[in-house]
Structures
1.
Amino acid sequence: MAAGPEPPPLDACPALVLNADYQPLSYFPLSLWNWQEAIKAIFLDRVDVLSHYEREVRSPGFAMKLPSVVALRQYVPQDRPPPFTRFNLFLRDRFTCQYCGAALPAHELTFDHLVPRSRGGRSCWTNIVTACTRCNFKKGHRLPEECGMWPKRPPHVPTLYELRENGRAFPPNYLHESWRDFLYWDTELEP
């Protein structure tokens, strides 16, 4: 009797986590739990399982297919302000230099204080924009009106909804087939 294909390793079976409204808690990074967290949530009756992997976990008297998509039973409000982090700043600005408009990977971006810290500028949502290294160096410690460099979009405090929508434009490298019905990527629907 020939053995079937080797099952994927357990670490390759994360569960997509949806809020109670069946929307992902986060798009970028995508809201995922490892298989242990997902199983624990199932046993604590905190989630509904919407889809499974073919992979199973077993104990001497129990077998269970690993969940690939779970939905929280209790809605987690998404109306709190997002944390002010470098990543969220880049996501707000869609990984695009706000001076020259170049879209770049995160490791090639930095951030710029419109009012430089040397002039009393604060590190906050409304004073910082995403910038490429070249533009940041060019602007230096000057005000926008002194160097003629104005951001394409004025800096603002984003909502979690805005960050979630921006994150949809940057799908992760790996999407399990069972997740596609729950992630509304900008793909054309078949007639």
Note: Helices lie at 35-43, 86-92, 133-139, 144-147, 160-168.
2.
Amino acid sequence: MVGATLETTPDGTVFRARIAVGACSEVARRLDDLEAALLGQQVTPALGDIAVAAHLSPLTPIGDLRGSAEYRLDAALTLVRRALNGLAQKELGSRT
């Protein structure tokens, strides 16, 4: 599970970002380093590319018969990128 929100300036620059991942640790965790990396970035259709594996360091997934910890981290990164790209599309669409 990923929850994300962005606030931007009129020119499309990110000035506030909040991103949390659930079901990949005991409790949902915010991705503070990713939030910081997004500040000052211009919203583009590929905004999610800013997210990298190192941004998931607060997460502590378990491995079990349903999936390994590595799989869960990879899935979380994919979901974070999709969420950011979706927010970017929404933001860019509201400007046209």
Note: DSSP finds two helices and three strands in the chain.
3.
Amino acid sequence: MASNTDRKEHPISMRLPEADIAMIDRAASLRGRSRTDFVRDAAVRAAEDVLMENRLIRMSPEGFAGFMAALSGPAAPVPEMVALAKRSAPWEPDDVAKR
């Protein structure tokens, strides 16, 4: 008989309103996934987001000074972004961006 430490998966039980289950089932169906897979992926993604938000970054005083200098300095233009900003939006006439 396997002990609890040998298990690779652990069950989680939740009580949800019927409307929440219906919404989850519909979204899972649109993705071609099972309810379990859909909820597991969503929960893991949310957990990763929280953990990344609270990640501590350590650096030397010299590294921090260089980082702050880079942030404080002038921004270098990115040619692709400049070209994109000059283009007209699809719903605007072509001459609007040239003003």
Note: The chain has a mean pLDDT of 89.
